[in-house]
Amino acid sequence: MTAPAQPPVSLAVEAGTGGILLWVVLPYVALAVFVLGHVWRYRYDKFGWTTRSSQLYENRLLRIGSPLFHFGILVVLLGHIGGLVIPKSWTEAAGISEHTYHIGAVVLGTIAGIATLGGLAILIYRRRTVGPVFSATTRNDKAMYLSLTVTIVLGLAATVAANVVGGGYDYRETISPWFRSIFYLQPDPDLMTGAPVLFQLHAISALLLFAAWPFTRLVHMLTAPLGYLTRPYIVYRSRDTQLGARAPRRGWDRVGS
């Protein structure tokens, strides 16, 4: 009688190593680059800390795509904060059942995701078809738009596939505790190994996006115009010989000295 074949030890080690690299090492590297990258950018590229607005080149498409994208991404961000940061036990203690939370999160998340993706599509179309805007687009901008699109599409696809088409997936039992464990300095990669593939790909793409964030125009999200509240008035002095805002009346010309 022969003994049953045992799985190779090397495969188990590689799988464990891969999980640690993806769900322990990568999050801390992305977090460190995100924080230190912003410090470096502000110190050595303060005048490049801008959105490089292209509103002067074209305004019609921008007025549609920009609010759609920004309001959509704001709702998505708030939804991620609520779902990842706030524990499930807290919402249940507040009287919000899992079913109610699930329906609200799926409906709002899907609508916000579609709005964000639609706004981003308009902005990309504008940047590609309007000549002056396209000329002002750098390779950095193209990589940023690609990364944003991949992250948003994967997040929307994961939500629809798991909670609309599929039977539902409670990410607050796995992904949320893993996310919080990163900040507790007790990362638990096993919580992510059983998550659906689309959720894993969405998490990886988001980490890579955050690592690239400080080196793109996305830095403007962390900018608030607080200085305008205390900035002194700018005094303009005219070089014209005419004094005042109106021309002097006839017969009252200034006499030169």
Write a structural description:
It is a single chain. By secondary structure, the protein is an all-alpha fold. The protein has helices spanning 9-44, 60-85, 88-93, 98-129, 131-135, 139-165, 175-183, 190-193, 197-212, 227-230. The model is unreliable at 1-15 (pLDDT under 50). Its EC number is 1.7.99.4.
Write the SSE topology.
Elements: H1 9-44, H2 60-85, H3 88-93, H4 98-129, H5 131-135, H6 139-165, H7 175-183, H8 190-193, H9 197-212, H10 227-230
Helix pairs in contact: 1-9, 2-4, 4-6, 6-9
Describe what is shown at a glance.
By secondary structure, this protein is mainly alpha-helical. Helices cover 64% and strands 0% of the residues.
Query: Helix coverage percent of residues?
Result: 55-70%
Number of helices: 10
Distance from N terminus to C terminus (CA atoms, Å) equals 121 Å
Encode the helix/strand succession as letters: HHHHHHHHHH
Structural class of the helix and strand makeup?
A: mainly alpha
CA radius of gyration is 26 Å
Mean pLDDT: 85
Major sheet attributes: none
Strand content: under 5%
Uncertain residue segments: 1-15
User: Outline, from the CA principal axes?
Assistant: elongated
Number of strands: 0
